[in-house]
Design the sequence.
C-alpha cells in the first residue's frame, strides 16, 4: 500500500492551484499586449522586437516564469527555514541603494549592473512577508504579547524607513498593507489602528478643504454629542473617548505644518490637484488629466487595439508603466477595464480563500501578506489613473512594464502557490 504522505509529496506539482496561475497568466498577457500598444512603433511592428519595451518585457516575463518554476520545484520548507536570511539579504540591498543607487525621477531606488537595473524595494515587500510569516509561525510567538507585537512591527518599519530614505514614498506606503495580516491574526488594537488611519486621512482632507477652524468646530460638536451619548448609556469608556478626541484635535492642529513643511512641493501640488484646490492640467496634473481623457474616450467598448489616439501620440507620460491602465481604458473601454478589475478581484478572493485553508501559520500569514500587497498596488495604481488618489508612482502588478516588478510579483505569488500545494504535508 502506498504511503499517503509519500503520495502527496510526489504529486505536489499536480496539486498546484491552476486557477490562480491562469488568472496570473491572463493578467501578464494583457499587460504585455498593453505595453505593445502603448509603445508601438511602426518602424518596429513586431511584438517580438527585443530592442523595444514590449520585446524587453517579454524577456522579463520569460525570466519571471523561469524563476517561478524553480520556486515550484524547491522544497516548501525552504522558505520558512531561510525567511529571515532572505529578509536580511534584501535589507542589505536596500542599504546598498542608499550608497550606490541611481536616482530616477527624484527617487534613489535603483541599482545598476551593466545594462540591467533592478529595484530592491520591490523584493523587500516579499522578503518582509516571508520574515513576518516565519516569525509568527514560531510556537511561542503570539500577537497578544507586547514583545511579539513590537518585533512584528519592527520587521515592517525597518524596510519602510530604508525605502523612505530613498525618497520612494509610494513603495513605502504599500507596507501599510501588513495591517490586514495583523487584523487576521488577532492582534489587539489592529482594527482600531485601521479606523484611526481612515479617520486621520479623513481629518487631513477635511482640514485642507474646510480649514482648521471649521474642522475644530465640527469636532467640538461631535465631542459634545458623544459625551451626551455616554452620559445617557454609559456604554463607552470615558477615558478612551477623551483620548480619541484629543488625538483628533492634535492631528488637525498639525495638518498645516505637515502639509507645508514635511511634504515636498510636488507632493503638495498633487494633493491639491486631487482635492480640486488647484488646477494645473499642463503641470503636475498633466498625467492624470490626460489619463482621464484616455479612459473616458474609450467609451463602452473602446477604440480598438492599437487605435487609441491618446496612446498612439504619447499624450500620457509613463503610459507603459504606472499609467498602463489608461491604455486598456482607451482601447478596450469600460468592458475591458471592468474585465481587468474583475480579474484582480478574482485573484484577491482566491488568495484569501487559499490562505484560509492553510494548515500552517507561516502559509496563512504569507498568503494574507501577498493578498494585501497586491491589493494596495491594485487600488492605488488604478485610483491614481482615474484621479481618485494622488500620483505616487507604483506599478500595476503583472501589467506595468518593468523587470523588477514582474520578477518580484511572480516569485512572491509562486512561493504562496507552492505553500498551498504543500499544505496536505503539514501535520
Sequence:
Amino acid at each position: 500500500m502506498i504511503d499517503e504522505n509519500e503520495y502527496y509529496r510526489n504529486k505536489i506539482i499536480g496539486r498546484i492551484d491552476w486557477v490562480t496561475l491562469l488568472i496570473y497568466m491572463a493578467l501578464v498577457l494583457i499587460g504585455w499586449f498593453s505595453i505593445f500598444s502603448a509603445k508601438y512603433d511602426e518602424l518596429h511592428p513586431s511584438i517580438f522586437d527585443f530592442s523595444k519595451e514590449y520585446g524587453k518585457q517579454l524577456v522579463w516575463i520569460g525570466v519571471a516564469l523561469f524563476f517561478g518554476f524553480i520556486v515550484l520545484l524547491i522544497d516548501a520548507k525552504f522558505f520558512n527555514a531561510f525567511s529571515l536570511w532572505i529578509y536580511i539579504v534584501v535589507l542589505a540591498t536596500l542599504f546598498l541603494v542608499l550608497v550606490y543607487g541611481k536616482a530616477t525621477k527624484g527617487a534613489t531606488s535603483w541599482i545598476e549592473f551593466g545594462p540591467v537595473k533592478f529595484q530592491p524595494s520591490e523584493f523587500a515587500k516579499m522578503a518582509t512577508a516571508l520574515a513576518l510569516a516565519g516569525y509568527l509561525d514560531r510556537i511561542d510567538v503570539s500577537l497578544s504579547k507586547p514583545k511579539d507585537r513590537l518585533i512584528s512591527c519592527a520587521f515592517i518599519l525597518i524596510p519602510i524607513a530604508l525605502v523612505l530614505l530613498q525618497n520612494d514614498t509610494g513603495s513605502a506606503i504599500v507596507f501599510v498593507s501588513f495591517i490586514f495580516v495583523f487584523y487576521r491574526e488577532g492582534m489587539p488594537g489592529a482594527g482600531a489602528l485601521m479606523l484611526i488611519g481612515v479617520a486621520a486621512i479623513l481629518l487631513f482632507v477635511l482640514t485642507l478643504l474646510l480649514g482648521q477652524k471649521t474642522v475644530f468646530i465640527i469636532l467640538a460638536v461631535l465631542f459634545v454629542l458623544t459625551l451626551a451619548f455616554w452620559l445617557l448609556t454609559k456604554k463607552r469608556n470615558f477615558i478612551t473617548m477623551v483620548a480619541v478626541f484629543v488625538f483628533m484635535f492634535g492631528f488637525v492642529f498639525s495638518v498645516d505644518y505637515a502639509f507645508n513643511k514635511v511634504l515636498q512641493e510636488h507632493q503638495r501640488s498633487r494633493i491639491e490637484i486631487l482635492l480640486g484646490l488647484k488646477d494645473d492640467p499642463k503641470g503636475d496634473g498633466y498625467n492624470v488629466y490626460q489619463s482621464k481623457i484616455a479612459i473616458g474616450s474609450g467609451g463602452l467598448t473602446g477604440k480598438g487595439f492599437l487605435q487609441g489616439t491618446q496612446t498612439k501620440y504619447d499624450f500620457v507620460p509613463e503610459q507603459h508603466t504606472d499609467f498602463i491602465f489608461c491604455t486598456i481604458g482607451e482601447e478596450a473601454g469600460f468592458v475591458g477595464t471592468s474585465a481587468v478589475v474583475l480579474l484582480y478581484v478574482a485573484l484577491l478572493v482566491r488568495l484569501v480563500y487559499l490562505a484560509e485553508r492553510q494548515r500552517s501559520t507561516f502559509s496563512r500569514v504569507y498568503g494574507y501578506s501577498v493578498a494585501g500587497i497586491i491589493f494596495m498596488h491594485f487600488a492605488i495604481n488604478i485610483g491614481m489613473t482615474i484621479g481618485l488618489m494622488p500620483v505616487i508612482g507604483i506599478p500595476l502588478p503583472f501589467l506595468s512594464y518593468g523587470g523588477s516588478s514582474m520578477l518580484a510579483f511572480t516569485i512572491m505569488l509562486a512561493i504562496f502557490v507552492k505553500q498551498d500545494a504543500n499544505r496536505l504535508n503539514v501535520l
User: Anything to note?
Assistant: The first strand starts at residue 102 and ends at 104. The chain is about 70% helix and 5% strand. The chain has a mean pLDDT of 86.
